[in-house]
Amino acid sequence: MKSLRALAMATLALAVVGCQQKKQEASSSGAPAASQAAAPVGDTILFGHVGSMSGNEATFGDSTDKGIKLAVDEQNKKGGIKGKQIVVKTLDDQGKPEEAAVAATRLVTQDHANILLGEVASSRSLAMAPIADSNQVPMISPTSTNPKVTKDGDKTRPYVFRVCFIDPFQGTVMAKFARENLKITDVAILRDVGNDYSVGLADFFAKKFLDLGGKIVSDQSYKAGDQDFKAQLTAIKGKNPQAIYVPGYYTDVALIARQARELGMKQPLMGGDGWDSSKLYEIAQGALDGSYFSNHYTPEDPSPVIQQFVTKYKAAYGAVPDALATLGYDAANVAIDAMQRAKDLSGPSIRDAIEQTKGYKGVSGVITLDSDHNAVKSAVVLGIQKNAAKYAATVNP
Ligand code: PHE
User: Fold this and answer.
1) How far is the CA of 260 from the centre of ligand 1 (A)?
2) Second label for 51, Cα 20 to 30 Å away, from 146, 181, 239, 348?
3) What is the CATH classification number for the domain harbouring 140?
């Protein structure tokens, strides 16, 4: 009798979750952001995801959302968390920091989200972080790599965490690869000045590259959304570098590569995780062949955890998971793991449990959060050949 009633309740909860998910899918596919009411119905747990579901970085939000929902569906099938089903509500920030702040505020104050997941882009996570802290709602960024995301000046933000490495490491990875593997001495930099990630990563790369005896022969800038990069590229061409470091996001990077080739420039480009998108190759049309970027993971990794995840993800969505999908999945699972361990589901209790995350076996690596709330993990370097990314190297912290 008891178990029959439990079964009936679970079915009801699942039906509710099903409805919720349909609504959110509607909200993420064009309907005005945040217009869908998806407050937790009954006894559910709400994961609030803030992501770029539209705009120039739409694949970031879309992949992350898919990873999060896969983790949540799996957990709901296992009975949820502390007997409650999990609901995901996704708000589109259109790739704008101000919209990310609005979305985060709405999720915590109106929808009473138990946790915030997001953002991918560091500038947008930086806009959300103070909101997480002041409302005592934990936030886990899957992939924001700028060190400032989890910091408030010198102090670690109590409610802000991430499941990825940070850019002082990522910058070092490509600087070492350029100097030691590619034997490059002269590099130019082309950075997105309005993007905290791009500016930070360019600086971390430059510092290490200089330390290793390399030279930065030109340091140029652009703004996300620019269409014409020929002036900067012409200036770079005049200095004849052996490679150009472009730590930007995929839409801009692909256009930059095409325009460099139009100007007759043959140098490889180098970059970071912001290149990771299937759209990079669509837009670049081969212009990035011979180029390299650092990333969090590669679906080519033969390890069973990764291959099982790739298979599951393909079955669910018909595509190979990029790093965003994988880290979205890991971020949601770290949240789930912490909520199961938390003494109750209040913000402070969940926060304490997240902070104690140690040795969590994620798909992207083993996750232990350090005193700055960062994960210390290895990076991979991918090389682009025939308009597709191929594994080149792994770099440990
Ligand atoms: N690391 C980037 C940032 O902090 C975001 C990103 C991560 C983009 C992974 C693509 C893949 O802004």
Assistant:
1) 23
2) 348
3) 3.40.50.2300
Considering its fold, how many domains does the chain have in total?
2
Name every residue whose Cβ is closer than 8 Å to that of residue 27 and which is 6 or more positions away in sequence: 33, 34, 35, 36, 38, 90, 91, 92
pLDDT per residue as tens digits for the range 125-150: 999 999 999 999 999 999 999 999 99
Give, for ligand 1, the residue of 144, 296, 298 to mutate: max count of ligand atoms closer than 8 Å to Cβ: 144
Same domain assignment for residues 198 and 111: no
pLDDT (mean) for 259-276: 98
Same domain? For 7 and 153 the reply is: yes
* Confidence label for 42 from pLDDT (cuts 50, 70 and 90): low
Is residue 213 a contact partner of residue 157, using CB atoms and an 8 Å limit?
no
Q: Is the CB of 126 under 6 A from ligand 1?
A: no
Same domain as 171, residue 146: no
Looking at the structure, do residues 229 and 309 belong to the same domain, yes or no?
A: no
Evaluate: CB of 197 within 6 angstroms of ligand 1: yes
- 104 and 248 fall within a common domain: no
Q: Output the CA 326–ligand 1 centroid distance in Å.
A: 13
**CA 50 – ligand 1 centroid, Å:** 14
Structural domain that includes position 65? 3-165+305-378
Ligand 1 atom with the smallest distance to the CA of 121 is: 12
Using one digit for the tens of pLDDT, what is the confidence trace for 326-367? 999 999 999 999 999 999 999 999 999 999 999 999 999 999
Pair (10, 134) in one structural domain: yes
In DSSP notation, 335-357 reads: HHHHHHHSSSSSHHHHHHHHHT-
Mode of pairing for the β-strands spanning 215-222 and 186-192:
parallel
Match 């109106």 to its residue by tokens.
110
